[in-house]
Write a structure and sequence with these properties.
By secondary structure, the protein is mainly beta. Helices cover about 15% and strands about 40% of the residues. The radius of gyration is 14 Å and the shape is globular.
Length: about 140
């Protein structure tokens, strides 16, 4: 199952018609390292018209990391200041998928949920609770 679909279903179930899900949009940021990010999935506070959005228009960014992603890339993603951030690690042959869901609190990301591939879970570090099982993700 696609992460975009899972988040979209959760927003519909919570009747959140004020939030919009989009995939792979350009997010404008301002850091010493980069001026833009392209998360795999985002939840926006406005309809996704166009391809570029300010970080302040996001409430959730979902990034699916491959083993090749460098630590610096992950740190840059966390510099965006989005209220909720999910980091999904695809793992490798020895370890399966894992998800860490962060909530922005007082300018710092705090781990709220840690999920392993073998265990269904409800993610609360999100604008609405999202139920998922990492073993069912298609990516």
């Amino acid at each position: 199952m696609d992460p975009l679909f899972i988040v979209k279903q959760a927003l519909r179930a919570a009747e959140r018609s004020d939030l919009f899900v989009a995939a792979a949009v350009n997010v404008r940021i301002s850091t010493a390292w980069r001026t833009a990010l392209i998360p795999d999935v985002v939840v926006l506070t406005r309809k996704p018209v166009g391809v570029s959005f300010g970080a302040e228009e996001l409430v959730l960014a979902v990034e699916i990391w491959s083993p090749a992603n460098r630590r610096a890339e992950r740190d840059t993603e966390m510099a965006a200041g989005v209220p909720f951030l999910w980091a999904i690690d695809q793992g490798d042959e020895l370890r399966g998928w894992a998800l860490v869901a962060y909530r922005l609190a007082e300018g710092r990301y705090v781990e709220e949920n840690v999920v392993q591939a073998y265990k269904p879970a409800t993610i609360t570090a999100s604008p609405v609770p999202v139920k998922l099982d990492l073993s069912e993700l298609d990516y």
